[in-house]
Amino acid sequence: MIPVFLSGNGSGGTPILVLVLVIVVVFFAVVASLLSRYRKCPSDKIMVIYGKVGGGGKAGVQAAKCLHGGATFIWPVIQAYEYLDLTPISISVDLKSALSRQNIRVDAPCKFTVGISTEPTVMQNAAERLLGLKLNEVQELSRDIIFGQLRLVIATMDIEEINTDRDKFLAAVSNNVEGELKKIGLRLINVNMTDITDESGYIQALGKEAAAKAINDAKISVAEKNRDGNIGAANAERDQRIQVSSADSDAVKGENEAKIVIANSESNRRQQSAEAERKATAAEKVAEAKAAEEAYAAQQQAEIARASREEATMEADIIVKAEIEKRRMEIDAEAQAERIRRQARGEADAIFAKMEAQARGVEEMLSKQAAGLGKIVEAAGGSADSAVKMMIADKLDELVKIQTEAIRNLKIDKITVWDGGTQDGGKTATANFASGLLKSLPPLNDMFQMAGLSLPGFLSVDGKTPPPAVEEEEAPESPGK
Question: How many domains in the chain?
Fold first, then answer.
């Protein structure tokens, strides 16, 4: 709703008028903005509309919409447009050393005229691939395509076909090039070829051969015309002589003189005819010999050029192959050396890591042993001597086991004792042997004393800790015994 302001002084219609003017201005501004988005396409351009232009392309979306002529509305925000110029583009292609079907290098400079196509499908390709490119970029892209197709066409034709049948050559070039240009949105308008040359001089030799043939044909024609003229002159002279002889001869001499004159004129005519025929034949043979000589010379030059080219080609192949093999061997040697260096560095790093891990393991083991020994000393009241005794006491069962194992596996199949009954200290020799065998093992008390320990009292015979073992000296015998 539009608010209406009323005032007591009669000026209540002013706000309404202002609001109406604002609405009218906004309306005309919107209409002018929409009209400015209605674009017309000139006849020498293609309008490419991109953005949201409807479906039909990949994933249901069309990339662009092309318009040649007419006009259309460009929606603001969601659409934009650009122009593709239809002005023909001239491209000079100076093709050199193209290989023909006869393996002869040919130089074929050409001039192509191309332009953006107005066919719907080709025009769509131009919108997708050429929009935004500058003129020199389009020329370079087209030149690359034309170079490849021109070489392909030359490779399928002989030099004679290229040189003599230009229409066939240009038709093949047009078909191949236009098919490739359509892929990027272009069409071929015209092809002009200036001249065709080859590095071996083969085309020049063909021209010399044709010129020599034309000259020889002209010489032969001239000789034939001269011969016909001489024959005609001889016939006219003969008729003249016959008429003069007939008019001057009188009736008396009549037939005889006339026959003589006729015979003489016939002889002269035959001689002159034979001479003219001989000259014509000689001229023809001379012309043929000269033509053959020039043809052989041109063929010799062509063969010399071809031999030089083949020799250069073979030398280039051998040198290039040798150079490639040399470079390959150098690269292989460098790769082998680098592999050995890396392998040596890897082995050194592995040895270093292994030794470092072993050192850390030994360090950790010694640290744990030191910590354990520290706890043992702490449990022994801080006395290292007591800690050592504690550790030895802990290993006592193993020591006793080792002592008993010393005679456990001793096998005595048979003991023969020659006992004469003699007593020593109240014991027989047999008893002394058995007791001596047991005494050969260190007593438990002696082992404790060697370790700096003493047996507890409950392990002794009288309930007391036995004193340290003292080596007894043998008592001297009394003189009375």
Answer: 3
412 Cβ contact list (under 8 Å, min separation 6): none
Contacts of range 178-184, beta carbons closer than 8 Å, 24 or more positions apart: 180/145, 180/148, 180/149, 181/114, 181/142, 181/145, 182/117, 182/122, 182/125, 183/125, 184/125, 184/126, 184/129, 184/130, 184/141, 184/142, 184/145
Contact 80, 106 (CB under 8 A): no
**Mean pLDDT, rounded, for 154-179:** 81
**Residue finishing a domain among 294, 325, 356:** 325
**CA torsion, ordered 219, 220, 226, 230, to nearest 10 deg:** 150
In contact, 47 and 39? CB cutoff 8 Å: yes
At 13-25, the pLDDT tens digits run: 688 888 888 888 8
Q: Which of 199, 225, 245 is the last residue of a domain?
A: 199
- State the pLDDT at residue 284: 85
Distance CA 93, CA 105 (A): 16
192-196, 302-306, 328-332, range with the lowest pLDDT: 192-196
pLDDT in tens, 83-107: 888 888 888 888 887 777 877 788 8
191: domain CATH number is 3.30.479.30
Q: For residues 448 and 469, what is the distance between their CA atoms, to the nearest angstrom?
A: 11
139 and 240 housed in the same domain: no
What range defines the domain where residue 48 resides?
Answer: 16-82
Q: 110-126, pLDDT tens digit by residue?
A: 888 899 888 888 888 88
Residue burial 172-199, b: 16+ Cβ < 10 Å; e: rest:
bbbebbbebbbebbbbbeebebeebbbe
In this prediction the pTM is 0.38
**277 & 294 share domain:** yes
Cβ atoms of 93 and 78 closer than 8 Å? no
User: Which residue has tokens 């007939």?
Assistant: 246
- Looking at the structure, do residues 97 and 46 belong to the same domain, yes or no? no
Task: Tell me the two tokens of residue 87.
Answer: 């002005």
Q: Are 298 and 205 in contact (CB under 8 A)?
A: yes
Cα separations in angstroms, 145 against 148, 181, 325, 376, 381: 5, 7, 34, 91, 98
122 vs 379 pLDDT, higher one? 122
Return d(Cα 16, Cα 28) in angstroms, integer.
19
